[in-house]
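Regression test case RT-17, inverse folding.

Input:
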């Protein structure tokens, strides 16, 4: 699974892009972050995917979770390059990220990274307001996404997972669902 998030965390974009390239070139099944530019009028690209119910599960699992197993409503900590798992925590405890949408790709073959980035941007932007209650530019939050790598695709991973985080890099202390 490849990761994406955005430019709002200081110095993270260059690091993330470098890490992304390194992980992809090594063929690891870990996620690779990527950032989106803030824009008040993005034009989401059409996508062939089916989204999962954006309602958070009543009691998401905690502990080490594979990126491909993240669910809507799960809160988790930041990860290190090369990780294949993240630490999922209860959303009422300090955390870095929260999954707010998961879509399953229906393609027969893994789309190009550019196509995955475009699809992810469109899906994650379109699903942000229904989960949070406001557009990203109207909040103190930013968002990112995870999508399959070559290796995780070959292992059956077909999910794009959208996650949010505090734009200033601070910890979140509760779920962001319906917070605006």
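Golden output:
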């Amino acid at each position: 699974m490849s990761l994406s998030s955005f430019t709002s965390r200081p110095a993270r974009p260059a690091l993330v892009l470098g890490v992304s390239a390194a992980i992809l070139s090594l063929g690891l099944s870990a996620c690779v972050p990527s950032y989106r530019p803030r824009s008040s009028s993005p034009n989401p690209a059409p996508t062939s995917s089916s989204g999962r119910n954006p309602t958070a599960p009543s009691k998401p699992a905690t502990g080490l979770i594979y990126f491909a197993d993240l669910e809507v409503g799960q809160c988790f900590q930041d990860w290190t390059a090369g990780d294949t798992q993240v630490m999922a925590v209860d959303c009422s405890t300090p955390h870095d990220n929260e999954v707010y949408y998961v879509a399953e790709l229906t393609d027969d073959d893994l789309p190009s990274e550019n196509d995955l980035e475009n699809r992810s941007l469109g899906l994650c932007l379109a699903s942000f307001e229904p989960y949070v209650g406001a557009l990203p530019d109207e909040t103190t939050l930013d968002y990112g996404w995870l999508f399959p790598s070559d290796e995780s695709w070959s292992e059956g991973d077909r999910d794009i997972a959208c996650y949010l985080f505090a734009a200033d890099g601070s910890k979140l202390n509760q779920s962001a669902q319906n917070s605006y």
